[in-house]
Give the backbone structure.
Amino acid sequence: MKNKFSKTLVMLVLIGTLLVALVPVSQVFAQDEELPQEITTEEDERGAGVTRFFEGVVRRMFAYQKSMITYLDNTLAYSDRYVEQAQSRISELQQEGQDTTILEDALDQFYTFTSEAEQALDAANALLRVQTGFNEDGTVLDLEAARDTVLTLEEHVSTARSSIAAAIRAVMEGLQQYRETLPVEE
């Protein structure tokens, strides 16, 4: 009984809320006189504000790209330690007489993908050194050039990120395949 009553109460509250939401609070009429008849490209107060807005957006995008490039550079630097550990483990497994060709292939794929990521990051770091459209502080000097720089940086960062992800995926798949080839101990 109590459960049926609470369901009914909740339903009534929802219906009441819906009805209140449907009632218009005030009427809005468009007035054609206040709308601009044509869009101008002249630099006025509104145009300067829009320009400052987009300069801020591009500046923040540039800062984000710089931080992503630093992060990806560090990720690749740390990957060297893990590769050394993987190579030593493969050597141990070979000394035990196990077939490690799957792991070696995965490691080769890892090297291929990380070299692609390094190339993309090298190109991105070269762009960061030039900073076309920006000053040393990251402030936008030329909006068009800064926009082109940010878009090119995004391409390089995207390539590096996808290459690093593919490298990790290759290693994980190689490990999975290797585990499947191991005999099951009971």
Q: What stands out?
A: The CA atoms of residues 119 and 160 lie 8 Å apart.
